[in-house]
Amino acid sequence: MIPQTIALGALSAHLGRVARHLVEVALAPLGFFYLLLVLTDLTGGLCAALGWALSALGWRVMTHRPIPVVLLLTTILLVARTVIGLVTGSVMLYFLQPTLQNFLFALVLLVTVPLRRPLIARLADDFCALPSTLTEIPRVQRFFRRVSLLWAVVFLANGAGTLWALARATLGEFLVVATAGSYTLVVVAALVSLLWFRRELRGQGIRVRFRVATSIKSGG
Questions:
Q1: DSSP labels for 82-97?
Q2: pLDDT (tens digit, 9 = 90+) per residue, 33-71?
Q3: Residue 27 counted as domain residue
């Protein structure tokens, strides 16, 4: 029996979670890197970015809070980037790695498409945990397989754009252009995904309401 209406909690709570994740995994480490790079040197910038990521991860472990998949992945990748940056002393190589990781992530998304729960579905839980009554619906599972293809294209475009900016711009220009361009593309893709998701649910006769769950109506 598929519920006709599913409450996912207050929209403000979901938007707040998205904002926290964005700051935690991207804006804060990038900001600390650039600040310490200007105030000290490359080593200071590298250590500041990694220190933030490890602190965020350690805080969640010590307080027994769930660790988002996106935080775990970005921290692991940041450790590798920092080691290479410290060993080579190259800012270009430090930023080349996340650029290339866009292509790697696109490949991973494509590889997980045939799975019952593709990687994109697991990442979605970091921002809005969906109930099993919803994720077990075949149409919803098919949506996540298809939207994986959309996000694979997004990461490929992101990688190509940042690679072009890295080759042509100064460090300051690269940080501004790459960050603004990347997140604009991600926000647009996220809105498209959300509208697509709602359309799929309407096709299944399901309405999603962003409010505190008081009751769930069940269809007969």
A1: HHHHHHH--HHHHHHH
A2: 889 988 998 899 999 999 999 999 999 899 988 888 788
A3: yes
